[in-house]
């Protein structure tokens, strides 16, 4: 169900009250509340990529449950109003901690003041335990027992068990990855959540959201009582984050949009094999009518750059080439990419214990191109103008030599820069495909002309000219490109390498 004004889109808020009160366009996700309350696990983590509506869902849950204000009018006409669990509305203490707002320099102090404010709100005039009084009076920022003190005090004051909501539990950790503060933050979060969530008889339920899975990525290895609902196997919250095919179809009809464009650009990230659309990107497209990369790179891409090696760079080049990559998804690198939404898990190969991964849509292709140009290849401006001098073959060859000097595997590197080239009109470069009487190394199709690259390795620097000529001649001898037609110009490029030196010949 969709409510609100299709021409009134608020991309800047995660406030459920604001969305409903202002009649902003809203896709009804209130069934999520029912799923949370019906799920037997008392401490849950929903792990999803960012921009799928996690914070809005969390605020919606807070509005539904809290007994501090009556927000039941906000849910009029939405699914949850007809649910058997409607009597849970406006019934319990709810404490919402937004960890994505925390900063490395004062995170413990910020959490301390949130806990203190909640205790003051619920427990004014109530006799507090000695431990809680000591916590409040001495400003012990490093005391990680705040959640326990809070829920115990509220239970003594009201006789009610609390709901704990912690949004983006891992944002501070991923932002601080590889910094000197990382272990300190990790230790504090583990202690804070363990004290408040493990065996705490004063909580009714707790929900954490984030990108990372606690157990598999070892973000908080000491917190072992959390049941995780992630992209691999979640059958409870499958449709609660992101947009389904049915929801996007209804949106496209309301906003007069091309459903094919939406699918090509923003669909494909899979939850337990079920493809969803990126909420923020679809709403941004409805608002602007532009097909563009709205999601962009989050800070988590810095972690990816720190985990790169030659083998992983080759895998990324293949992905940019439109190929699927076979990987062991339990390996932290690939698990992180799937969990964070940068790659889609297309197929499981249980007999091999591996999976097939892909870049699922055009928006993610743009993200990966920007990442490659920023983190792997230098000379970003030059890469973006790689083909500008193709009318002058000698200058084009010199431009190419600039890129290929002082680089890694020439075939992998060339495949990477051609895949990352900033022109979505170009089709994915093809590698090692049959053509004519053999297999070319790389073929690139642009609107105005086509390119064939052939590579040769040399035994010494004196052989560079000869081998580049042989590579160029092989394109004609093997009739590479004979099957692509003659309606466009075909640029032939022979490249020879020795160590970090290269020579380019082109016609």
Sheet with most strands: 5 strands, parallel
Report the span from N to C terminus: 59 Å
Low-confidence stretches: none
Instruction: Report the count of strand segments.
Output: 19
- Number of helical elements: 20
Strand content: 15-25%
* Secondary-structure content class: alpha/beta
What's the arrangement of strands in the largest beta sheet?
A: 4-5-6-3-7
| General shape | elongated
Average pLDDT over all residues: 86
**Radius of gyration over all CA atoms, rounded:** 27 Å
Written account of the structure:
The protein is α/β, with parallel strands linked by helices and 507 residues long. The chain has 20 helices and 19 strands. The protein has helices at 16-21, 31-38, 54-65, 107-123, 130-138, 146-158, 171-175, 182-197, 214-217, 245-255, 259-266, 279-288, 301-306, 310-320, 332-339, 362-375, 380-384, 393-404, 410-420, 464-477, and strands at residues 2-3, 26-27, 43-47, 94-98, 162-167, 203-210, 227-229, 267-271, 274-277, 325-327, 344-349, 354-358, 430-431, 434-435, 438-439, 442-445, 449-457, 489-498, 501-506. A five-stranded parallel sheet has the order 4-5-6-3-7, sandwiched between helices. The radius of gyration is 27 Å and the shape is elongated.
Short structural description:
The chain has 20 helices and 19 strands. It has 507 residues and is an alpha/beta fold. The longest helix is centred in the first third of the chain and has 17 residues, at 107-123.
